[in-house]
Design brief:
Elements: H1 2-11, H2 24-37, E1 50-54, H3 57-64, E2 68-75, E3 78-85, E4 88-94, H4 99-113, E5 117-126, E6 136-137, E7 141-143, E8 149-151, E9 176-178, H5 186-196, E10 200-202, H6 205-214, E11 219-227, H7 235-243, H8 248-261, H9 265-296
Helix pairs in contact: 2-4, 3-9, 4-6, 7-8
Amino acid sequence: MLRSFLLNWISARYSKEVKDRIYEAAAETLGAAMSADEPDSTEGVRRAEVGFLFSRGAEYGCFTDRMENPRITKGNGFTFVQGEYKGIPLAVAETGAGETNVREGTLALLQVFQPRRVIASGFADALSPEIGRQEVFMPLELVSERGERLNLSGEERGNADNPGTGGEMPWQIAPLVSVSKLPADPEGRRELGRKSGARLADTLVWNAASVCREANVPFLALKVVAAELGDRLPPDLSRAEKAGSGSRARRLGAFLGTFTNRPSSLVDVYKIKQRELESADRLADHLAGLLDEISRNRSLLIEWGEERKRI
């Protein structure tokens, strides 16, 4: 079933209801910005075969390292990376967290790069004790913070308690809930899992999926587990994070105070960053594998010529 879903996603056509005209202004704006950065460039913005969405830079650095000719552009509070993988045009958007940021960042990706299909990716928190760090999931059942549900597969998955794919694909499947702020402690994660029925949590996928659904753009998610159910920050780092939630300067001051009072907290931060780097590298492996699947099935892809009539 998962392979069938993936192949359908790879070969999906744009709906004629997608209104290209609303994309033109944003595309021209970013194209002008790119041309200003590279005066000799005449290409401007290239339409992407696949668009990727991430919440923050730590999630996608290992992936963009594998892209050919990556080019970074910043605008309207978002960061975009444009490049290729084995000849497949790609675009990456960093949205930040929060419903408004995710929705606007997703719309910006669609407006500027007009990807034929979208992948929401990045880190997820485990809400079940049996899920370990660096496990990779393709959530097919999504849950919103308000309890709304969306099935991406369009068909029954069978036993929802069995996360395996039967060897069909190298990813597990599990329900995922998107929230505005992830729980910081095991008790909060456990309660979120109990209330939502999900086994993973993030801040991105639901809102990104909603925008893509409204625009009739094929969508899927691929997430790596960066935090296990039992993970807990040391108390002083947890207090510093809460104290610095208002602004970057306040956050920096709070952490500097923690490092001064307990120099060994630097080691704790290093371990956290190292685990994030390992998770990001593993996710990059799987995203590359997914793009390899697209590359092997090029015959399924529908040529999207520049002559395509705008509606």
